[in-house]
Write a structure and sequence with these properties.
Keywords: Membrane, Signal, Transmembrane, Transmembrane helix. Helix content is about 80%, strand content about 0%. The chain is mainly α and about 130 residues long. Helix 4 runs antiparallel to helix 5. It is flat and about 60 Å long.
């Protein structure tokens, strides 16, 4: 088991270092600053990948044999479905308002706002369902 943890950690270090060096080479200046920041930011997801590859099937029995039958899964599915409908409505109303007014907005701002809205909508719906059904 210790060897599996070492393999996951070494996978994380190698992958994060590679991403850091890659990010540093694409910058115009401050190679080491970019490399360290990107490497540090990707270390945790890289360890998650190492854990998935080397440890996920070897840590013991799965506590939930069929996760799609849990109440949490049902809450998340209902929350995501409702949030999707909300996003379609907001995007349609926003597109209509922009078409009528002729206002031009940067796409990055609009997409960022939609993503934040989606996260907040799913979280709020999940919390309401959890409190109502519990």
């Amino acid at each position: 088991m210790v060897l599996r943890h070492l393999a996951a950690a070494s996978t994380a270090l190698v992958l994060a270092a590679a991403i850091g060096v890659l990010a540093g080479t694409f910058g115009d200046d401050q190679f080491w600053l970019r490399a360290v920041v990107f490497g540090g930011c990707t270390l945790a997801p890289a360890y998650g990948l190492g854990w998935l590859v080397f440890l996920s099937g070897h840590t013991g029995p799965d506590p939930v044999a069929r996760p799609e039958e849990t109440v949490e899964h049902d809450w998340f599915q209902r929350s995501a479905a409702g949030a999707f409908l909300d996003l379609v409505v907001v995007a349609g109303l926003g597109a209509t308002a922009l078409a009528v007014t002729g206002l031009r907005i940067d796409a990055l701002d609009v997409l960022t706002a939609l993503i934040v809205l989606a996260f907040a909508d799913v979280a709020a719906r999940f919390t309401v369902l959890r409190r109502r059904d519990a």
